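Notebook entry, structure prediction.
Reason for the run: the old model in the group folder had no record of what sequence produced it. Starting over properly, with the input documented here first.
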Amino acid sequence: MSLDRARDWLVRAGLPGGDPAEAPTSTSRFADGGWYKWEVAGALDAASVVRLTERLAPHGVRLHQATNTVGTMRYLDPQLTDLVQACRDLGVQLRMAVGPRGLFDIGGQKLATGVVAAASAYRLRGTDQLAQAVDDVAHAVDLGVRGFLVFDEGLLSVLARLRADGVLPPELRLKASSNMGAANPAHARLLAEAGADSVNLQRDLDVRMIAAVRQATPVALDLHTDNPRGTGGFVRGYDVPEIVRVGAPVYLKSGNAAQDFSDEAPSERQCAAIVHQILLDDQLLRRLFAEAVPSDRPEF
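New structure, fully documented this time:
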């Protein structure tokens, strides 16, 4: 098979035949016409969300989405309801990671040193654990959560089906985690078709690769502007305006490099560093791509 024929088959399948030589400007937007939203992920609790919001406000920047990566199963109900209420009061979208996950259970994947084993450690093991994850979501929904970070493709499809059948609220929002490894247009489209309302791509994709993904699916993309050393240590800076231009609508996940992603909420010092990184990204975005405006209307 020639490479040209392979590219033609990709086009017939509704995918781009290659990463574009010149990345086109995305024509998709959030519902209110905005190009991007600011997101912070980590072990966020009510106090840290309030702290981040208050630190950003004097600079005219909003925190649009908070993603708690620890998960419902690691919090007492009063802690979770406080987080839900804080986000509701501040107009911040909240997403909670779903548990249990392989990182917590008795399986050996997380103990293996090979990269292949580590990559699959976030998936659910067995039907009982799948049922537990569905229960974890249902319990969080009862406590007011409407957005979730999902690590397992099978669970994603089950939750989407329950949402479609009216078992779970129709406004439920499902984000496909970067741990699913989406790094090409076909994979991103597959996750969207499985029920993801947004897809977190791999952290190391260049702008042309992101543009190709955008051509394959209209769902929002979650893209890191920076990362802690454990996931690459990238601080993309000047890429941010281009990420917004070619990837819109996009959640800009900023401030990750300031955290160690433990189960403890970010400290006062870490919150200050997270805000500093967001403001650096915002400064470049306003200076180099001023026509891009944020999406300030919550989706859920």
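Summary: The longest strand covers residues 36-42.
The old model has been moved to the deprecated folder.
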